[in-house]
Amino acid sequence: MMVTAEQQTYSSVQIIWFFFLPNLFAFNRANIYPQAKFRVMLKREKKLEREIALSRIEKLIEMAEKMKFEDYELSKRCVTIARKIAMKYRVRIPKELRNFCKKCLYPYRHDRMRVRVRKNRVVITCLNCGYVKRVPLKKG
Questions:
Q1: Do 32 and 56 fall within a single domain?
Q2: What is the pTM of this model?
Q3: How far apart are the C-alpha atoms of 1 and 137, rounded to whole Å?
Q4: 121-126 sheet: strands from edge to edge
Q5: In terms of domains, do 67 and 89 share one?
């Protein structure tokens, strides 16, 4: 009597034994154990994900710059989302787009910040939270 793959049953010991010794067999596991479910791992395209993330970060920060005089809370939300995207996909926010407070994440406005030049550095003080950002001046 011939038993087909659909009619054949396997004990859990046989299946566990097979999964602990994967390199001994060069054939497809799915043909041997049709009842077992196998997960296929797909390779992520990290470069493409980071490019998309960077473009979205740029759009969000540009939107925050446009909205900072009309709706200050919405512009903060845009910066927050951009920062979360940057952290998730491990992308640096470009220096020219980093014009927001590191602590409270509000975009810098002329009425909510103070700029002073002292001893070869620019000191930017956020008047929302009091955070002080010191940027060294380039010698040249």
A1: no
A2: 0.67
A3: 87
A4: 113-118, 121-126, 132-136
A5: yes
Work out how many domains the chain is built from and give that number: 2
Of the two residues 35 and 87, the one the predictor is more confident about is 87
Report the alpha-carbon distance of residue 67 to residue 79 in Å, rounded.
Answer: 11
Task: For residue 86, name the pLDDT band (cuts at 50, 70, 90).
Answer: very high
Looking at the structure, tell me whether residues 76 and 109 fall in a common domain.
yes
Q: State the residue range of the domain holding 9.
A: 1-41
Print the SS3 string covering the chain.
CCCCCCCCCCCHHHHHHHHHCHHHCCCCHHHHCCCCCCCCCCCCCHHHHHHHHHHHHHHHHHHHHHHCCCCHHHHHHHHHHHHHHHHHCCCCCCHHHCCECCCCCCECCCCCEEEEEECCEEEEEECCCCCEEEEECCCC
* CA–CA gap between residue 40 and residue 71 (Å, rounded): 46
Mark whether 21 and 86 lie in a shared domain: no
12 and 67 belong to one structural domain: no
